[in-house]
From TrEMBL:
<dbReference type="Pfam" id="PF00440">
    <property type="entry name" value="TetR_N"/>
</dbReference>
<feature type="DNA-binding region" description="H-T-H motif">
    <location>
        <begin position="38"/>
        <end position="57"/>
    </location>
</feature>
<dbReference type="InterPro" id="IPR036271">
    <property type="entry name" value="Tet_transcr_reg_TetR-rel_C_sf"/>
</dbReference>
<protein>
    <submittedName>
        <fullName>TetR/AcrR family transcriptional regulator</fullName>
    </submittedName>
</protein>
<dbReference type="Pfam" id="PF17920">
    <property type="entry name" value="TetR_C_16"/>
</dbReference>
<dbReference type="InterPro" id="IPR041678">
    <property type="entry name" value="TetR_C_16"/>
</dbReference>
<dbReference type="GO" id="GO:0003700">
    <property type="term" value="F:DNA-binding transcription factor activity"/>
</dbReference>
<feature type="domain" description="HTH tetR-type">
    <location>
        <begin position="15"/>
        <end position="75"/>
    </location>
</feature>
<dbReference type="InterPro" id="IPR050109">
    <property type="entry name" value="HTH-type_TetR-like_transc_reg"/>
</dbReference>
<dbReference type="InterPro" id="IPR001647">
    <property type="entry name" value="HTH_TetR"/>
</dbReference>
<dbReference type="GO" id="GO:0000976">
    <property type="term" value="F:transcription cis-regulatory region binding"/>
</dbReference>
<dbReference type="InterPro" id="IPR009057">
    <property type="entry name" value="Homeodomain-like_sf"/>
</dbReference>
<keyword id="KW-0238">DNA-binding</keyword>
Length: 196
């Protein structure tokens, strides 16, 4: 009976290969940030062939979304925000962003992400780069203004503040105000940042 010699090179996919890829991705995003992370580098860290990473994940964006346990795909968020007339952009942004927080699963994940962002410089950098590239940049490009990036960033700060007050600090009456009223109050302020 002949025994096969072990083949050199990367190991093939195993029972938790996907988990190993996600672990390596989280570490790489934390150490290097979104921009400097590559799928090949993640494959190297996970000890698998790069083709296996592509087998499980279509792109670096998808791997980022899953490794960070985001409750929604930021690319879909950007598409929903940009789908409509410019004069309703503030309302769409408020509706989409707060809609993510209003679902029980979304709220749980977003709370975890926000708490991680404020307690870890690495997580803050990852989120800033990843979400910036997938949401803030495309929305900025859709505005016809020389300072579009600043405008969208100011709208984001407004939303982050409201989310912190409503869902984490539970500041009253913001925490108990019904969602429609909250969106009605936020939409014009966001619109002013974006197109005013």
């Amino acid at each position: 009976m002949t025994t096969r010699a072990a083949r050199p090179g990367r190991r093939p996919g195993g029972p938790d290969t996907r988990g190993e890829i996600l672990r390596a991705a989280r570490e790489s995003f934390a150490d290097k940030g979104f921009s400097a992370t590559s799928l090949r580098g993640i494959a190297r860290e996970a000890g698998v062939d790069a083709a296996l990473v592509h087998h499980y994940f279509d792109s670096k964006d998808e791997l980022f979304i899953e490794s960070m346990a985001l409750p929604v795909d930021p690319r879909q968020i950007a598409a929903r925000i940009m789908d409509g007339p410019p004069e309703e952009l503030g309302r769409r942004i408020a509706t989409v962003f707060l809609g993510v927080w209003e679902s029980p699963d979304g709220q749980q994940r977003m709370k975890a992400i926000f708490r991680s962002v404020v307690s870890s410089d690495a997580v803050a950098r990852i989120m800033r780069e990843g979400v910036g590239q997938m949401i803030i940049q495309p929305v900025s490009r859709s505005l016809d203004a020389p300072d579009a990036h600043l405008r969208v960033s100011l709208a984001a700060t407004q939303l982050i503040g409201v989310a912190m007050a409503r869902y984490l600090v539970e500041l009253e009456p913001v925490a108990s105000t019904d969602l429609t009223t909250l969106i009605d109050r936020l939409a014009p302020v966001l619109q002013l940042h974006l197109t005013g």
